[in-house]
Amino acid sequence: MTPIIPVGTSATKADALQRRFVDQIVASTPHERLTAWYYTPMALRFSDHLAYDVCVYDCMDELSAFKNAPAELNQLEKALFQRADIVFTGGQSLYEAKRSLHRSIFPFPSSIDVAHFHQAREPGEDPLDQANIPHPRVGYFGVIDERLDVELVAQAAAAMPDVHFVLLGPVVKIDPARLPTASNLHWLGGKSYADLPRYLRHWSAGWMPFKLNEATRYISPTKTPEFLAAGLPVVSTAIVDVVRTYGAEGLVDIVDAEDVEAKLRSILARPRDFLVEKVDAYLADMSWEKTWNAMAAHIQRAYAMKSVVPLLRGA
Prior knowledge:
- This protein is α/β, with parallel strands linked by helices.
- Helices cover 38% and strands 13% of the residues.
- The chain has twelve helices and ten strands.
- Helix 6 links the parallel strand 5 (137-141) and strand 6 (164-168).
- The protein is globular, with a radius of gyration of 22 Å.
- The model has no long low-confidence stretch (mean pLDDT 93).
């Protein structure tokens, strides 16, 4: 459920409204066990009173490194680590940074809905807003914010006027007017998850031109396996988790400002399915179902321990 709060509501009033919403939802939903699942410590501001059976902190990013991060975020994260029975991290690097902060913490790098992105390997019509863009096309999809290296995007577009760069995603926390413009740069806005294969099937390559800074140090981009499942060759800047996994396996080409043109031209010159067999073998053991089953097992163990510990103490 997403709370709808009037524009102009003070932070204190917004917390009070959301606290009431949470209470109403919990009271009106029959349940034998209540699991509090946090994606952000900021939610403690309106839910720290809940009496739950298990508390999960799903730490997807180092949120404190993001632009405009709330001042109280670090303090609330400390409180959430104390409250949580179990912590999941969205990647290996984030796990290594946080593992000393909790007794029960486990890494869960991004998984993949293979069947959904395999649709991009099948024939289909080009979406209307992309149909008139010439080939070859190099594409990106995802939030366009301070983590995207727009200077590198502009540099690549200027160096490769014969290649067209398509970027899908909402512009967040940066001024859209400051995005670079060129005849071969195409900012097409946000798209639904369901529509992504329709765009990707008409690209020649995927790329992830992230900046290398505090905001990207611990990210593990979900789009990496999604690009690969779509059958696209992929280039990425040197994001640690991408280098250590997909780069080390030879599935993603790692680039920087000095060699981005050479690397892109190299993968554009080879067949699109050049790595498909190797990619499919690597992705064969990945699915969100397996991720969830492993998470659920950890949660069940945490719940069982909470039931056992009082008995042991009593004994």
